[in-house]
Backbone:
């Protein structure tokens, strides 16, 4: 994983390298069976060089604690490793350039379950027309890899009524991990 991280830290494959402060490669236990994937770093992540360090990250961590998934039981990365200006959606050419890093992270980790955080990650990793409201929590199999999507934590911060469904999806994640042990 260190080799991939080092390559990523000097990457200039897309124009996002021009505006980044830090490359945001990932954080957590590289040997974990659970991998979360978000879409791209935001302003706080760009400054810290770590994914999900703001309010969304705190909500994610609190929810994981609530269902009994420990800090050492997961890893978090994004599809894009550099922040898109003004937090705009990732562009197809940026995703095309950056996805091989994530694919290599997944190949190295070989997680039991990949969890997409939000619709955009799900649209890239599960299927283009992924409907987050209807299909969150549903388990898909992609190239032999179990994968599901949950609402992006930021969506829960905006609309707390989704919290029940969000929590139920995390209970399911815990259950899948228990079955894989
Ligand atoms: S977003 Fe990805 S492909 Fe683009 S410069 Fe950053 S690491 Fe390289």
Residues:
């Amino acid at each position: 994983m260190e080799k991939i991280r080092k390559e990523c830290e000097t990457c200039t494959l897309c124009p996002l390298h021009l505006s980044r402060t830090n490359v945001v490669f990932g954080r957590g236990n590289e040997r974990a069976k659970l991998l979360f994937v978000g879409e791209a770093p935001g302003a706080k992540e760009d400054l810290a060089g770590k994914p999900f360090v703001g309010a969304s990250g705190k909500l994610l961590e609190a929810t994981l604690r609530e269902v009994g998934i420990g800090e050492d039981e997961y890893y978090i990365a994004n599809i894009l490793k550099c922040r898109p200006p003004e937090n705009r959606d990732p562009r197809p050419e940026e995703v095309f350039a950056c996805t091989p890093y994530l694919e290599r992270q997944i190949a190295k980790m070989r997680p039991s379950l990949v969890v997409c955080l939000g619709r955009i990650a799900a649209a890239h990793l599960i299927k283009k027309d992924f409907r987050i409201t209807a299909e969150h929590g549903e388990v898909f199999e992609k190239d032999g890899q179990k994968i599901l999507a949950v609402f992006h934590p930021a969506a829960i911060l905006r609309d707390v009524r989704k919290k029940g469904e969000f929590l139920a999806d995390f209970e399911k994640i815990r259950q899948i991990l228990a079955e894989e042990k």
Remarks:
- The first helix runs from residue 2 to 9.
- The chain has eight helices and six strands.
- The beta strands are 27-28, 34-38, 74-78, 113-117, 140-142, 145-150.
- The domain at 2-180 is CATH 3.40.470.10 (Uracil-DNA Glycosylase, subunit E).
